[in-house]
Amino acid sequence: MPTGALIEFTNISKRFGGVTAVNDLSFTVEPGRVTGFLGPNGAGKTTSLRILLGLVAASSGTATFGGVRYRDLPHPLKTVGAALEAASFHPGRSARDHLGVYAIAAGLPRTRVLEVLTQVGLAAHAAQRVGGYSLGMRQRLGLAYALLGDPGVLVLDEPINGLDPEGIRWIRGFLRDMAAEGRTILVSSHLLSEVQQSVDDVVIIARGELVHLGPLSSLDTDAAAQTIVDSPDRENLATALTAAGITFTTGRTGLIAATSDPALLGHLAFEAGVELSVLHRQKAGLEDSFLALVGGGHSL
Amino acid sequence: MTSFLRSIAAEFAKIFTTRLWWILALVLFGYIGLLAGGLAALFSGLQSGVISPDTVNTGGGALSGFGSLPPIIYSFASSVGYVFPVLIGALATTGEFRHQTLTPTFLAIPRRGVVLGAKTVTLLLVGAAFGLIALAASVGIGGGVMSAFGVDALLLDSETWLLVARSVLAMALWAAIGVGLGVLVPNQVASIVIVLAFTQFVEPLLRLAASFLEVTAKIGNFLPGAASDALVGASIFTVMNPAGAAPLDWWQGGLVLLGYALVATVIGYAVSWKKDVS
């Protein structure tokens, strides 16, 4: 069973001309866990992953697998499997030949080609030219390439993009199984909801900088909680809230007050003699915490 | 196996798992076969008197300038066919940029210099194979036609087989030049346009213009097509242009071609191959 190596980003920065794409990024990714690498499009996720894989040169800093840079790995495909976002195929080559080329380059047995195509559910299309593949099939072929060397580390850039619901279900189970075998799994996405069922840890970046790091549960905070309150006499309720200095917006089901304390609102309404029809606290979801992290703190 | 040998094996697999190689090989064989066969029929017909000089309006005198006919016919393989190895070399390289296959390639073998070296070695061999295909057309069809007209095809002459060997070498070097061009100009369309425009139009004109003065004629000898003809030792172009400066020796021509391939590849490595892959 291949064992996962620790991935370490140490003070990685990348500047393209005058633009800083990644700024002083440091984090580690543990074996045996699925780590979600999250951030909006353009946050620097793909650039960071390409630096990790030696495809893009960092302006400064190092990224390593168990302390070794990708290009110094003695058997790169047997150590790290990567599926990157771009469709990297010659359209005139069959899936079998595509993988065959890189099996030869990496010194892997040719039997691996059909094994990984079977593993990702493409065995029936092995002889078909990739030019005729759907987006979902290309994603699976990219994944097959990553699995070719049966590596202990998987680096997957937006692997869920373009998959159908059945494919999404499949890849979630696949990621869990791979991590359970002790592999290191780093999977990027611009949508938390896409990966939240699969990941143990999250690394969140925005505008090239680290904004949050920790287990998924660390996002489950009530910092951004709100309370929904409504009354048949909404006008007087609004007046009471304003008088008490509580800010609110008018939503579809009532007033959305910026407080996490329903009792306070109940008391205000009682004092003002306003009948309440709705009063409940709304906890912010993980997605809201995520959006607050990547959008908040900086002007957009 | 070392990563260099594995890389060479992978580069061969890349060439032979798409359709391009046999399409180009087929067109090369047909084109050279038609040209060598057609011109062999015309000239040997004239030489043997089967075709009257008056019907083709050349005036019998010009024929004497051709010297021996077979080397001219056989050298069509390289003097005309050289564009094919350049194309396959350039397409093998620019295709990696165009289809973003540099990503899986460099993930499998992160040493980029090793990959480019392997590609050059592979294309040298593929170019040599293209040379053999082109010579099969020029010697096989051209020689057959000459024999049919009763002209000695010189197939037992060692000079003929030395010319064949030098032609194979020239075609191999042209494929390596294609690889160099591909890394120098990674844009596939631009690369193809440069190959076609330069080989079919710019260089023939330059060679013609250079031949008018002795100084420029000497410089013209260092143009890649002229160097290739010098390496092979015969060409329809040098025959048409007998007043020019003495061509380079065959080995000098070979070194000039090798120089073009090396310079283009080394500069291309720096400007595109070792850059960020995104």
UniProtKB/TrEMBL annotation, chain A:
Q: Which GO terms describe its molecular function?
A: ATP binding; ATP hydrolysis activity
Q: Is ATP-binding among this UniProt entry's keywords? A: yes
Q: Which UniProt keywords apply?
A: ATP-binding, Nucleotide-binding, Transport
Similarity section:
Belongs to the ABC transporter superfamily.
Q: What superkingdom heads the lineage?
A: Bacteria
Q: Where is the ABC transporter domain?
A: 7-232
Listed name of the protein: ABC-2 type transport system ATP-binding protein
The record's section on Pfam families has: ABC_tran (PF00005)
TrEMBL record, chain B:
Record's keyword terms, sorted: Membrane, Transmembrane, Transmembrane helix
The organism sits in which domain of life?
A: Bacteria
Membrane-crossing residue ranges in chain numbering: 20-43, 72-92, 113-133, 163-183, 222-244, 250-271
Official protein name in the record: ABC transporter permease
Q: Which classification does the entry list for the species?
A: Bacteria, Bacillati, Actinomycetota, Actinomycetes, Micrococcales
